């Protein structure tokens, strides 16, 4: 069964009567949860414990393309943001992923996840398993954050509103079904459980405060829908590259 | 007397015989010091104690446009850099200028310099004194770092090689000649005395390591020449806006 997925054109209609209150805008944004990639068939099967080790490895190796792009995406937002106070909080996302002298960072944690799954570090870092559809989707996201107004780019990050639910479910699923993966390898998911809510709270604050006109509110919802498309498109490409009966690597 | 200034086209010639050694490349880069804005007549007069309070204020208010753009410039470089290890060091520049919860940051220090000179914080932040030539030069610099290969953008930062000399001279000149400015207001210059060498060392490492072909080496020298043009052009615009006999604000 393939989950159907409304494209952003169909899913971002306005009420046609003018701007809504900040809280109603948050509601509109939250409605995009139905289009989050947690609903994708590949994720549904992942969390039901139905994926093979090869499929898990294929997902981890491809998803690394996205992980590795996150600091560039956040730096692009920082580079377009003229407000020091916003930058001072946003920059934390970059160190969370790149790490510092004293902290590991999300990219390193993802590499450890890959190693726990049986992937070599080198085969993740050189991108040999990354399929074109994943690469194109990730680059589309980075380009969006470089070229669109920074508040829209902030709005596109709001898939983090939906992430903790998926993270918690995934963590439980991995610990239960994929016992061949060392539990220490799952730190990335654990870290995101508290990082994502902190990050989405800041992003939501910005969007609520600055998206006051119909056009701004529509643009924020469209940005989030676009981001859902990015994540969904990645899952489509991964799903196609690692079907149920195909060994990995090909 | 107006100091003459060779443009980047005239000043970046190669030896025409192939790539040079990393150390010889550093020499080529250091030769650009003759075109650094410390040689501009306005700076020469500043350091000789010849500027009026109005001229000093005009310079401080206009130079704030540049200070404020630095984190966006560095975030643009970060956003174009695919290498985590480089990003982990480069990000320090952003917190140095934006500050953190526990540190003031260079932008704040510059605002304090302005206040020590008799400027209101608001008139610096709203940019009312910034002349078009300064704004255009600063935006050209940010655009350069957004759109050029990140190693070239790193090379353009190498005016920091020449900065400590100017900073030390300026600090001494301010303490000696402009005694109407509170010494606490000069912290920005003091901080840059140790930040600039640390930053330029990292940038030089990157450029030495990665600019190995003639084309790469020429591009690095051209990037630095471009940056000298940016700084020089700002001084030209400021010099014209605040001539010796004109009161400030206009």
Automatic annotation (TrEMBL), chains A, B:
Catalysed reactions, as listed in the record: 6-(2-amino-2-carboxyethyl)-7,8-dioxo-1,2,3,4,7,8-hexahydroquinoline-2,4-dicarboxylate + 3 O2 = pyrroloquinoline quinone + 2 H2O2 + 2 H2O + H(+)
Presence of the UniProt keyword DNA-binding in the record: no
Pathway(s) served: Cofactor biosynthesis; thiamine diphosphate biosynthesis; Cofactor biosynthesis; pyrroloquinoline quinone biosynthesis
Pfam families, A to Z: TENA_THI-4
Record's compositionally biased regions (Polar residues): 1-18
GO molecular function: pyrroloquinoline-quinone synthase activity
EC number, as in UniProt: 1.3.3.11
Ranges where the record places region Disordered: 1-23
Biological process annotations from GO: pyrroloquinoline quinone biosynthetic process
Keywords: Oxidoreductase, PQQ biosynthesis
Keyword Plastid listed: no
Thiaminase-2/PQQC domain residues: 28-236
TM segment ranges: none
Primary role: Ring cyclization and eight-electron oxidation of 3a-(2-amino-2-carboxyethyl)-4,5-dioxo-4,5,6,7,8,9-hexahydroquinoline-7,9-dicarboxylic-acid to PQQ.
Family, similarity comment: Belongs to the PqqC family.
Protein's UniProt name: Pyrroloquinoline-quinone synthase
Species this chain originates from: Actinomycetospora cinnamomea
């Amino acid at each position: 069964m393939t989950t159907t997925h409304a494209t952003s054109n169909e899913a971002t209609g306005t009420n046609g009567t003018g701007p809504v209150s900040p809280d109603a805008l948050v509601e509109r944004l939250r409605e995009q949860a139905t289009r989050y990639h947690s609903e994708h068939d590949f994720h549904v099967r992942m969390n039901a414990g139905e994926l093979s080790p090869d499929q898990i490895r294929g997902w981890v190796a491809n998803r690394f393309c996205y992980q590795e792009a996150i600091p560039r995406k956040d730096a692009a937002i920082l580079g377009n943001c003229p407000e020091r106070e916003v930058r001072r909080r946003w920059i934390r996302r970059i160190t969370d992923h790149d790490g510092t002298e004293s902290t590991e960072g999300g990219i390193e944690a993802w590499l450890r996840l890959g190693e726990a799954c049986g992937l070599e570090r080198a085969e993740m870092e050189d991108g040999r398993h990354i399929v074109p559809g994943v690469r194109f989707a990730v680059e589309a996201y980075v380009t969006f954050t470089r070229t669109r107004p920074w508040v829209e780019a902030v709005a596109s990050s709001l898939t983090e509103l939906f992430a903790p639910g998926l993270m918690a479910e995934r963590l439980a699923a991995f610990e239960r079904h994929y016992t061949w993966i060392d539990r220490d390898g799952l730190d990335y998911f654990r870290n995101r459980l508290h990082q994502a809510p902190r990050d989405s709270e800041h992003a939501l604050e910005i969007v609520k405060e600055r998206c006051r006109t119909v056009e701004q509110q529509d643009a924020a919802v469209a940005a989030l829908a676009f981001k859902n498309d990015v994540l969904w498109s990645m899952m489509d490409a991964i799903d196609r590259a690692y079907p149920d009966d195909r060994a990995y690597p090909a």
